[in-house]
Design a protein that fits this description.
Layout (H helix, E strand, L loop, with lengths): L2 H12 L11 H6 L7 E5 L5 H8 L3 E6 L2 H14 L3 E5 L5 H4 L5 E7 L7 H5 L2 E12 L20 H5 L4 E11 L5 E10 L3
Length: 194
């Protein structure tokens, strides 16, 4: 990612973007009771809403993002809540360098579209580990999220990218977030062999 992109995200977080998004993504909240406990990795964690939820649910959490400002906000909130999360700054355009090795019992990857990332995440999963993924989906509906097609997956693209994993849940369509905003999403829960 270019320095300009990194600066853009830092400025968004410094100016208070996403401050009201403290809830975990609904897919994670609905699946948390069925997912294996242990180590978790939150990829492209932003200000840490999913990482904080995972830590409060008993996971040992590593959380990775490119924005130092987003991570600063997340770190402050973790301290306020008394939660222990390892915050990592890295550029996912170079996943082999940025991603910690694992293995992880759970990898959460929410709303950061990078079509080449899934195979790298799969190699970080422990035996029987789960990947929970939610990505923006191409649509003509009025929804939140990126406006350019490059940051939205085509129908079926996420499921196809998960070849080699056991898909236990897959859905595509419009989803109303807990804050009342409508998003077009592809949602996946998959696991490795035990």
């Amino acid at each position: 990612m270019s320095q300009a992109e990194r600066d853009k995200w830092d400025e968004r977080y410094r100016s208070g973007a996403y401050e009201d998004r403290t809830h975990p993504t609904a897919l994670l909240a609905s699946w948390i009771a069925r997912l294996p406990r242990g180590r978790a990795l939150d990829v492209a964690c932003g200000a840490g809403r999913n990482a904080l939820f995972l830590a409060s649910s008993g996971y040992a959490v590593d959380a990775l993002d490119i924005s130092a400002a987003g991570l600063e906000r997340a770190r402050a909130e973790a301290t306020r809540l008394g939660l222990d999360v390892t915050w990592l700054c890295g550029d996912l355009e170079d996943p082999e360098r940025a991603l910690p090795r694992g293995p992880y019992d759970l990898v959460v990857w929410v709303r950061y579209v990078n079509a080449t990332l899934l195979p790298h995440l799969a190699t970080r999963l422990a035996r029987g580990g789960h990947l929970l993924c939610e990505q923006h989906l191409a649509t003509t509906a009025a929804v939140v999220g990126p406006r350019t097609a490059a940051f939205r997956l085509q129908p079926g693209e996420l499921r196809a990218a998960a070849a080699g994993l056991d898909v236990v849940h897959y859905a595509e369509g419009l989803v109303v977030d807990p804050d009342g905003c409508t998003a077009a999403l592809a949602q996946l829960v998959a696991r490795t062999a035990a």
